[in-house]
Amino acid sequence: ETVGVANGSITVTKEVTEMNIDVGMDTDNSSPTGHIGKILWEEKFDYQGGVDPKYWNYDEGRGINGWGNRELQEYTALLDNVRVDAGNLEITAIRKSTEGTDVFTSGRINTKNKVLFKYGTLEARMQIPDLVEGLWPAFWTLGHDFDDVEWPTSG
């Protein structure tokens, strides 16, 4: 049973100051000059299948304490849970009943160590499903030092 699907696209643009989007993790973001409105990185999801590993990582499993939120679902890299189709990233939560117990799988992806910027505007177009009790779709921006500083200081 599909519980919910979220889909959309992501664009990072240059606003008042320059953002350095660097796939190679160059963290020197000290130059705040540039042209207003310049697109520095854009993910249009104009391909089919799994997410592009050049930009995206999968968080898999349950994490520590349900990723800090006591989340019950198991995150996977399966196409049933995370896929790109018709110009959209689709993240799908699925409920399966096993021996009288409901088991949930979903997808969780990030751009850690692949896309980094300091200044600018991040824009995302998302369609969030009607919420069912227990669903909590989220789009987070976290700093590159999240492992050391943790949220909310790094977010």
Give the overall silhouette: globular
The ordered string of helix (H) and strand (E) elements is EEEHEEEEEEH
Give the amount of beta strand, in percent.
25-35%
Rg result: 17 Å
* Quaternary form: single chain
Low-confidence stretches: 1-6, 13-32
Instruction: Give the termini distance in whole angstroms.
Output: 33 Å
Number of extended strands = 9
Supply the helix-strand structural class. Answer: mainly beta
| Arithmetic mean of pLDDT | 75
Number of helices in the DSSP assignment: 2
Helicity, in percent?
A: under 10%
What does the main sheet amount to?
7 strands, mixed
Secondary-structure map with pairings?
Elements (H helix, E strand, L loop, with lengths): L1 E12 L25 E5 L13 E2 L7 H5 L3 E2 L6 E4 L2 E11 L2 E6 L2 E2 L10 E7 L18 H4 L6
Parallel strand pairs: 4-7
Antiparallel strand pairs: 1-2, 1-6, 1-9, 3-8, 5-6, 6-7
Please explain how this structure is put together.
The structure is a single chain. The strands form two sheets. Strands 1, 2, 4, 5, 6, 7 and 9 form a seven-stranded mixed sheet that branches. Strands 3-8 form a two-stranded antiparallel sheet. Helix content is 6%, strand content 33%. It is mainly beta and 155 residues long.
